Amino acid sequence: MENKSNQGFLEKVFHLSENHTDVKTEVIAGITTFMTMAYILAVNPNILSVAGMDRGAVFTATALASLVATLLMAAFANYPFVLAPGMGLNAYFAYTVVLQMGYTWQMALAAVFVEGLIFIALSLTNVREAIFNAIPMNLKHAVSAGIGLFIAFIGLQNAKIVVESATLVSVFSFKGSLEAGTFNSVGITVLLALVGVLITGILVVKNIKGNILWGILITWILGIICEVTGLYQPNAELGMFSVLPDFSGGFGIQSMAPTFFKMDFSGILSLNFVTIMFAFLFVDMFDTLGTLIGVASKADMLDKDGKLPKIRGALLSDAIGTSLGAVFGTSTTTTFVESASGVAEGGRTGLTSVVAAIFFGLSLFLSPVFLAIPSFATAPALIIVGFLMISSVLKIDFNDFTEAIPSYIAIIAMPFMYSISEGIAMGVISYVVINVATGHAKGKKISLLMYVLAVLFVLKYVLI
């Protein structure tokens, strides 16, 4: 009787039959989505720790931000979308804003927090949708593809497959590693990362559920075997740590104190701060809207006009999640494209999201496991996620050079300039200039907003 009453309650809350689904389907879908994106729990602390943030605190912030934002998605929109700190956005946070531009991670968190507040305001109006419609579709696809290359490049660096050299970058030398006596600490991890890429690739080809997560786990297990047998020898001086989980502190939740409410608003009035915040805003906006439209179309949730009925609730949960995530101590929280895996399993309502959120909650108690996962095990995930993102390049119209050249410029600028925001700026500027100079601007009806964005980006280069 109790089971039937529970099902009745869930039916009433999530309108399961109306959405042609049931409890079992939704639970399986929720678990599947969590499995496909749980890698963020290992990858995000690794990336943000490069910016000087505490890995344990970032782990807790990541799990908590994912939990809260995903529950908000279920409450506001009843959609099977799951949220977490976004890939690409975390790389921009750590590598561009902190390491390249010299801002503290506390200032970067402040930019994310303000971006979230602006998003909340934009989500309560139609502004966010208007901005989405203003940017040419080809440029949106280019941003996604460029981020894919950027993420893959970071993965190659994290695994030390690609290293600095006289030619800027070159491939890791196994011969040099053997001669220097560092093969057992560094060389073996590079080899494991390469094996991990192949394993993850095979799992993706075989369409194994949770392929990216399984790729991380298998590579990590191989690392554990190498450490136990003495083939891998941790060396803290070289940044190579033990891959064995440390349960000495028990299974308690890692303290979020080192990152909680540590935002620094001292530079909020500077042009640089506005630029950073806008870059977060821009990337998050198109990442989220693109994901929502893409996954919703797979699930047949779009109406006859190609619009998502409850998009405002979905955008609002994303916006609130971003600001809360910054308070907790993590980069921009966004809707994950991996939600498509749960949709493929039949997930159609917010119950899918609730199940995934519960698993993020459970993961809080397993931090020693996730924090022991080394960067050489998560690097293959970055490289393969890069592959999944660069596939957007296929949607660009290469027959129209006024569309293709700006898209190409946006794509190559991201990895070569080591910055997502530079890629976006270059793409927008070149799009406007090329179309105006060749007389195509009128025919395409380029929006006023695009001209404004182009001018702002040009001013950024002139003034900064």
What does this structure look like?
- It is a multi-pass membrane protein.
- Its main location: membrane.
- The chain crosses the membrane at residues 27-44, 56-83, 103-122, 142-163, 183-205, 212-232, 354-373, 379-396, 408-434, 446-463.
- A two-stranded antiparallel sheet has the order 1-4. A two-stranded antiparallel sheet has the order 2-3.
- It has two domains: 9-245 and 253-395, no CATH class; 396-463, no CATH class.
- The chain has helices at residues 2-14, 23-37, 39-49, 55-77, 89-100, 105-123, 127-134, 137-158, 174-180, 183-205, 211-228, 271-298, 311-328, 339-344, 350-363, 367-371, 375-390, 401-416, 420-437, 441-444, 448-463; strands spanning 83-85, 162-165, 168-171, 333-335.
- The chain is mostly helical and 464 residues long.
